[in-house]
Each structure stands twice: as C-alpha cells, then as structure tokens.
Amino acid sequence: MTETQSTHMESTAYDVVVLGAGPVGENVADRTRAAGLTTAVVEGELVGGECSYWACMPSKALLRPVIARADARRVPGLRQSVQGPLDAAAVLAHRDEYTSHWKDDGQVGWLEGIGADLYRGHGRLTGPRTVTVTGSDGGRRVLTARHAVAVCTGSRAQLPDLPGLAEVEPWTSREATSARSVPGRLVVVGGGVVATEMACAWQALGSRVTVLVRGKGLLNRMEPFAGELVAEALTEAGADIRTGTSVKSVTRENGTVLVVTDGGDRIEADEILFATGRAPRTDDIGLETIGIEPGAWLGVDDSLRVTGHDWLYAVGDVNHRALLTHQGKYQARIAGAAIAARAAGEPVRAEDWGAHAASADHSAVPQVVFTDPEVAAVGLSLAEAEQEGHRVRAVDVDLSSVAGAGLYGDGYKGRARMVVDLEDEILRGLTLVGPGVGELIHSATIAVAARVPVARLWHAVPSYPTISEVWLRLLEAYRDA
Which InterPro entries does this entry report, sorted A to Z (predicted)? Predict the structure, then answer.
C-alpha cells in the first residue's frame, strides 16, 4: 500500500503505528519490520522528512562547494585556479539533485521494500493506541496499534513574536535551504548552527550577509573558541557580524526588508532568515486525547517511552534530548529494539548502555558544523563538565602545530580542546575547529562513548602525517601539564 484515499471511515490494526516518515520514523519502521511486526507509517508531507529536503542534505549540498573552494585556495599550485566566484546556478542545481527535486518516490519505494504500509495524510491520536489519518481528499482511516505508537514528527523553526512578521514572509531554515536564487542582501538573525552554516553558504554564493546575534558570539553552546574562529572567518569573507544585537522590528515594502535593531540601526535586505530556535511538531497530533498538553516536548525514559504511557514512544526531535538527525536515528534503533522486545515478552535491557537504552544521548552526542572552518564536538564542553560537578582539566592544542594540518593547506588555523575527567582519567568531551576536522570526530565519539582511559589512548597510534595526529599532541599536553 502506498497511499490511502478513502472516502469513508475504515479501521486497520497494526502492531506498530509510526507518526512521521522522516529519517527517525523510517528507522523505527525498519527495526520493527525487521522484528516481524506489522507497521504503518503516517506522513503528511514528503517521505524522508526535514533532513532530506530542507535541512541536512540540501544545506550540505550548498556548503560542500564553499568548503572545497576554501580548501583549494589554501593549497599552493592550486589556489590560482579557483579564484573566481562560485557558479551559483550550478550549486543550486546540484542541491536540487540531492533533494531529488523535492520528490519522494525513492524513499516511498524504500518503505515499500521493507514491508511497511504508508498512509499519506495528517495523523492525529484519537485515543490510546489509536491514530486517525485524514487524507488530502478528506477521507479518514483509523489505525490501531497492538503494541506501540511512535511519535516521530520532528521539530519546526520557531519565529519570534514580532508584529507583522508574517507579512514580511521571512526565511526559516526551510527557505534558506531551498531558495531558487541568491539574494543580493541577506540578514541572518541568530548565532547557532543554522545561522552560521547558512551565513557561510549564502555569503560564498554572492549575498552580502549581515548576522545579528543577541548574545556575545556565535555557537554559544560550544567551546568559546569555536564561535570565535568561525566569526573571524566569516568576517574575513565579507560578512558583517553584530553581537549583542536584537531585532526590534522588521517590515517589507516594495520587496525590500527593513530591519530596525534595538540599538537603532536600520538595515535593508532582500531577505531575512530567522534561525532562532526550534519547536516540537506536537501541536496538532491529538495529544490532548491522552492527557498531554498539545505543543509540548515529550518526556521519555531511556527506551524512548513517553512518561506515563506504556504504549507511546517519542523519538527524535520531539523528545528534546538531542535535536540532531544522527541522534534521532540512533534513538530510533533503540526504540525499535525496545518495542520489539516488549512485543515478544522479552526482557528489556534499559540499564545504562544496555541494548534498549539511549545512553549516548546523555554523554556522547557528536555534532559537526559545516562552516569554514568546520567545527566538530562530542560530549561535554569544559563549562558543561564543571557545571555537572566533574573535576576536569582542559587540554588545548593549536592544530597548526600538527604536521598533517600544514600539508592540508597554507595558513591552516585551528584548535582542539580535550576535557579529561581527573577522577576516572577518561574523556568527557573533545572539540575541534579547523578545515577537515569533521571526519575526525567519530574517533572522539568512540573514546567518549566507550569511556576509554587516557592511558589506553596512548596505544591508539595516529597515522603520520594526518590531522588525526592531534590526538598524540593532546595526550602529550595532558601528560606534560
């Protein structure tokens, strides 16, 4: 079954019903089907979700030529060949290919291949273990779940409460990743991952970018030097970054956006992007029918089961544990295994680091910010570790001191910080900033998740000459401190 177009109420029973067919919902369905459970998936938009069409894939397709050109310009003998502007039309066309031109045929085929049934339409809970799907033709279908309903509806951009903002038609992350042309002037409001990545992409594609940050700097949830190095590079590229600045009003007249800041500055632009946070897509999925406030983040245990409801799971962004696609997919694998175990009457291993516990969400969450320079981090920052009461030491290394960095390109700038727990002598976190560091973060993730002792890390020898030699430099700095 690929689509329901029913003009009257029908009811169908499944073992599992999944609300949302993004990467998280797809992975829950994959695991429950692999366990032999009949599974229905409900989706009101495109199968593949936010990541495939308006987030991870299109944003990285926009950023890849930006970063590749920046890397090439650091290499003697090559930089002279890449001094011209990017071919914006070609970049946007490549982005369109990566989003399958916003068509989901391939992902629908994948769902069919695993044996899941897809229902297109708006799905709402209408009681315990019950989901009613309203199709585009108004027809409704009732789905009942013998074992579990998994809410995988993700999150949406949260816009500030500014008078008349809707009439301005501002960009959110969706418009920023799917725009058909390059705006001459772009104002970016926010200082997080979406703001920095989109500022980097559109500045390189030809926009004159102004970034307005309410706080002290960019990427304020990471080590301070991460935001500082990204801000320095964006400024060198031509962006105007203003910290300690809020938007007081925004209007659009004759196609021009006028932004007035709390400091009285007036900025004109062709488009304005608000990257000011996320809200859960739980406002219209029937939570009130089971005693939960609509629009709420859903609290879960480590098996991703919603508090107080033994049949309801909330997986991915909706539980607010880690708003990252890869963590949502990790949670989906855990939730799928837990649902299957409970359905079979088997023991559920939800203890710390058990087969049915999303333990990594607490201490080993990796993230890469695909700016130039890249930022990669896993685990706790120094400030977070100290706030949690750990006795830790931070060890910093200038990445330009690593032989592999010098070969990567002239003028390499970067920094690494390792946060070591002095009680257990394990890593609590690692942050890397510099060209090419995104591919290094998984080794750090393994070290943090597996709680590898520092003494054991000495025997994990990095290849020479690669940037991964930073591991040796960090360990030497820790030893010699």
Answer: Class-I_Pyr_Nuc-Dis_Oxidored, FAD/NAD-bd_sf, FAD/NAD-binding_dom, FAD/NAD-linked_Rdtase_dimer_sf, Pyr_nuc-diS_OxRdtase, Pyr_nucl-diS_OxRdtase_dimer
